[in-house]
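Please decode residue identities from the backbone states below.
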């Protein structure tokens, strides 16, 4: 077997050549400039993404706090409305009770005023009945 037909040898030679060319490319000033620019852009993109993400987090925290505050305000309003409604209900019920008492009192007074007028009429009817039986 001849040395120039060995695939292992040519792989080794290709690897050494690639390493040499890679070393020369890596040491070239233009390559360094391109790599530095690419890394700088990458770092800038990362920083912008982090700032955007932090902005989103801040906005979400603000919205959550506003929602908590609004929930507290709504709960306080509902409590106050319930208190006012209970107080108004008590006042209305008290007024209705007074009106019922007044109506009952008036009805009792009217009955009392009508009762003496009815009683003599009953007596007269009874006395007439007695006279007719005698």
């Amino acid at each position: 077997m001849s040395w120039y037909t060995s695939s292992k040898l040519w792989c080794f030679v290709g690897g050494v050549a690639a390493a040499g060319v890679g070393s020369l490319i890596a040491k070239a000033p233009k390559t360094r400039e391109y790599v530095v620019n690419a890394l700088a852009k990458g770092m800038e993109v990362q920083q912008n993404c982090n700032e955007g993400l932090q902005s989103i987090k801040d906005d979400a925290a603000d919205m959550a706090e506003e929602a908590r505050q609004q929930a507290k305000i709504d709960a306080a309003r509902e409590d106050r409305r319930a208190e006012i409604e209970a107080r108004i209900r008590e006042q209305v019920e008290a007024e209705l009770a007074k009106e019922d008492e007044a109506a009952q009192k008036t009805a009792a007074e009217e009955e009392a005023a009508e009762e003496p007028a009815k009683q003599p009429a009953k007596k007269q009817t009874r006395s007439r009945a007695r006279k007719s039986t005698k």
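Observation: The chain is about 95% helix and 0% strand.
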